Amino acid sequence: MQKWVVAAKRADFGAIAEKFGIDQVTARLIRNRDVVGDAAIEEYLNGSLLNLHSAHQMKDCDKAAALLADKIDAQKKIRIIGDYDIDGVCATCILYRALQLCGANVDYDLPDRILDGYGLNRNLIDLAGDEGVDTILTCDNGIAAVEEVAYARSLGMTVIVTDHHEPGEVLPEADALVNPHQKSCPYPYKNLCGAAVAYKLVTVLCEAMGIPQDESEKLIELAGFATVGDVMDLTGENRILVKEGLLQLNHTENPGLQALIRVNNLQDKEITSYHIGFVLGPCLNAGGRLDTAKKSLELLLAQSEAEATLLAEELLELNERRKAMTLEGYEQAVELIENGPMRDDKVLVVYLPDCHESLAGIIAGRLRERYYRPAIVLTQGESAVKGSGRSIESYSMFQELQKCADLFLKFGGHPMAAGCSLEKENVGELRRRLNAQTTLTQEDLTEKIVIDVPMPLGYITERLIEELSCLEPFGKGNSKPVFAEKNLDILSARAVGQSGRVVRLRVANAAGTVMDAVYFGDATLFREYVEEKYGRTETEKLFQGRRNAVQLSVIYYPSIHEYNGLRSIQIVVQKYQ
After folding, report:
1. Which of 197, 411, 496, 566 could form a disulfide linkage to 420, CB 3.0–4.6 angstroms apart?
2. In terms of Cα–Cα distance, which of 164, 138, 168 is closest to 152?
3. Cα dihedral sign, 562-568-574-577
């Protein structure tokens, strides 16, 4: 069950619309995203690279660049140690390409998700020492590696940490520590991903080494890609990095990205943040999940079309495997919940011993979406049970896990997500305790859908639809606008598409505006919902295109439908009730 509420943020929408030459609807949408004041609105609508803050403001950025410049001049061996996800791979690629441009003696290493775990560790440090590495440069990790950094320095290595994760109470004693979240860092925008922090360092280094600015700016497409892939808020600098990154990505010169776009049949489409988040990004992540992240990095570094195509096809195949394995695990989890004692649990703790541990977080996220409850999926690792959880707004998962700290070998996270490891015999007790101690109410477990604008169909124009594109890129922190209208007459409905999963509708509102609509959901569930609400006879009339009594309130997004050279306005129905 969902509760629909209308956003009630106030401003002089008429004045904003007049000042910036936009529709009042667009002005309201901007205010709903907490963009307030002329300067912020101007940057939101027209922000460019000129609006980025100087990287020199970031603590230790100049120091790190100077150290690297000295190492490059002396041809000391530098090793980049990244991470196995999109952010870590893109950050490693940014640093590696920039250091190559600067003439560095540089290579890279990435941890194995299963064998090494996250970030810098002794095995990687020992390997670097054995291979004559002088300087370790981390990206997307290192801020928590207090002991590891000390160990590397005890072996005589220089250590430069670049990271974007929240620091703990104790910071590693690195030779330079670049992370905007440090308390003493004056950098104005804190919410950068690891690849964006790496890009900031690169701009300072390339400037110091006399590399033209347009060369380093070519790496923005990777910083923007990682920002979406790592699900960062698309506000402030992130929004600019993603906008500029998408401009580059749509005309990319990177053979690996060209191949990844091509094998996903996107070569004739405009690449958006959606494609990064749900098509291209998961392919890069699949390497680190099921094989090795080095394969994803090799793709980004590929020099020839043939090499890039081969790697892109392998990653596409890995992602297809990942999707199949995820679906299998998800269906097993649903069966356990629906047909067992967990059905009435407010906090879902599902043990899937045969599930690949890298998929636990994805499955937990899907369970949260289906049931709108906090969900933790546990799998059997090599030495212990490992788990990943995803939460809802009213439940701080990290705080709740802290109350069960004695059950874990290790745990960490934040309010909306967490990871843990524990002995198998503690799985049942974890489920029991989390549910016994929870204060979640039925109100907390009712998903709230916030409607930006209750907009009548008659207000939609092609001009407004085109204007809405100025709000892109959409994603976390800058969600796609949510429009709604109540009590639409559903004049006709038909299931279309190869599997009949798309529903095409003809709808009309009380003012008499008639419009086409499309629902890309489950056609069977749609029909079942209508039948339950209005009965079989009215449902049959609806799907036969005959006069009927069916009325639905819908949440939608307006779009232009093009077919055989003709353009028409339609709405894309996202939810109905």
Report:
1. 411
2. 138
3. negative
Which residue shows structure tokens 């890069």? 284
Provide the β-strand partners of residue 556: 483, 573
Q: Quick one: 28 exposed, middle or buried, by C-beta within 10 A (0-12, 13-18, 19+)? A: buried
Asked whether the beta carbons of 558 and 465 are under 8 A apart, the reply is yes
Rounded Cα gap, residues 252 and 261, in angstroms: 10
Q: How far apart are CA 124 and CA 126, in angstroms?
A: 6
pTM over 0.70: yes
The encoded tokens of residue 395 equal 């439940």
Q: Which two tokens stand for residue 196?
A: 């964006």
- pLDDT tens for the 577 residues of the chain, in order: 789 999 989 999 999 999 999 999 999 999 999 999 999 999 999 999 999 999 999 999 999 999 999 999 999 999 999 999 999 999 999 999 999 999 999 999 999 887 887 889 999 999 999 999 999 999 999 998 999 999 999 999 999 999 998 888 899 999 999 999 999 999 999 999 999 999 999 999 999 999 999 999 999 999 999 999 998 999 999 999 999 999 999 999 999 999 999 999 999 999 999 999 999 999 999 998 888 999 999 999 999 999 999 999 999 999 999 999 999 999 999 999 999 999 999 999 999 999 999 999 999 999 999 999 999 999 998 889 999 999 999 999 989 999 999 999 988 878 888 889 999 999 999 999 999 999 999 999 999 999 999 999 999 999 999 999 999 999 999 999 999 999 999 999 999 877 778 999 999 999 999 999 999 988 998 999 999 999 999 999 999 999 999 999 999 999 999 888 899 999 999 999 9
Alpha-carbon gap, residue 352 to 200, rounded angstroms: 41
Question: Where do runs of H (alpha helix) occur along 33-162?
Answer: 38-46, 61-73, 86-101, 122-130, 146-154
